[in-house]
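Data deposition worksheet. Section B asks for the primary sequence of the deposited chain exactly as it was used as input, without tags or linkers unless they were present during the calculation. Section C holds the resulting structure in token form. Section D is free text for depositor observations; keep each observation to a single sentence. Incomplete worksheets are returned to the depositor.
Section A, Depositor: J.P.
Section B:
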Amino acid sequence: MTNLKKIIVIVGPTAVGKSQVAIHLAKKFGGEILNFDSRQVYREMTIGTAKPSETEWGGVPHHLFDVCDAGDKWDAAKMRELAVPLIDKIKLPFVVGGTGLYIRNLLFGFFEGAKANADIRLKLEKEIEEKGLLALYHKLELIDPQAAKKIHQNDSTRIIRALEVFELTGKPMSVHQKEHGFAKPFYNYLKIGIDMDRAELYRRIDSRVDQMIEAGLEDEVKKLTEKYGRDGVLAKAIGYAEWFDYWDKKQSIEETIAAIKQNSRKYAKRQLTWFRHEEDIKWFKAGDVEGMEKMIAEFL
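Section C:
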């Protein structure tokens, strides 16, 4: 990997403080930050994604924020497409985010798998209509428990794709990915993971949700819903989708806020599960910035 471009990758669960640490480190080492959070790419989704403001950037250049609208489709491939030319130009890129799939695709590329099959997709979509998405997710759990662990039960796109690959090839998606191996990285990278005591992390998540509510999260979601409807990213994004039941008078404001907190905590748990499976991460406690500085200096 000696001839490859050097990049720093900073990962960890939501609310652990990745942005603040990354800004400090990028400033110290003369780097620039590339957002690799799958929600912070959307314009106008600001409060609910805890997007850092320009005043918080501290003079450090930031990239890949606000690159698409909430009505647009976005995925790991598009993220990589925009990131690669930026990484080529930036002297020391700091790739920062909690979306493990996007970071994996940047570093190693994907197993492309068999080409999409319209008939199989149509059949699976019909199954969702008749039995519900959860039934399809349970089917995936039986066929490919490893893939199911990494896919959210509401992520219809990835559930359908995993089942489609299995039907087309007779092999689970996770087996294909293992064979693909993610063995040859495109960059000479140092991947730093930030973690903290679980109880403290959950306390921070709850506190951040309270701050979002005070900052006008409901109004932000209302404006976006008026503009784009209740489909797409707004139907899936934590902090956004929970408001629909409140507006439909199916739950109280207290229940809505509690749901956002609970879903955020569950998301943090899923992120940690994903990252714990990655053996290339060097883990640090959130406060150990000195340790991170030392490791980056040695890497560079």
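Section D:
The mean pLDDT is 92.
Residues 253-276 form the longest helix (24 residues).
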